[in-house]
Write a structure and sequence with these properties.
By secondary structure, the chain is α/β, with parallel strands linked by helices. It contains two helices and nine strands. It is globular, with a radius of gyration of 14 Å.
């Protein structure tokens, strides 16, 4: 099982954690929502939760809860700027389809 960050994503998370002045990493998970059924959720972690799986890339830790991991195993998280937009991009090999607005996915 693995979750990976690109160098760009790791740099963004590191800069943000430094700016916040606290935090040990990033939490990646899924929640039930949207027209396709699931959506990614991201939050900064100040303290790990019991049972978290921890993955580290480029010195940045990614925490994943046990319920989310089967849906996002193998996901690569990137951070990209496209024109005026910037944000995290998910490359999840488990995705079967995404909704038209791009906010949710199904496995």
């Amino acid at each position: 099982m693995s979750i990976t960050l690109t160098q760009q994503a790791a740099n963004h998370v590191s800069r943000y954690l430094t700016k916040r002045g606290k935090g040990v990493g990033l939490r990646l998970g899924v929640r039930t929502t949207g027209c396709s059924g699931m959506a990614y959720k991201l939050e900064y972690v100040d303290e790990p939760a019991a049972g978290d799986q921890v993955f580290e890339n480029f010195g940045v830790k990614v925490f994943v809860d046990a319920k989310s991991l089967p849906y996002i195993d193998g996901t690569e998280l990137d951070y990209a700027r496209e024109g005026l937009n910037e944000g995290f991009k998910f490359s999840n090999p488990n995705e079967k389809a995404t909704c038209g607005c791009g906010e949710s996915f199904t496995v």
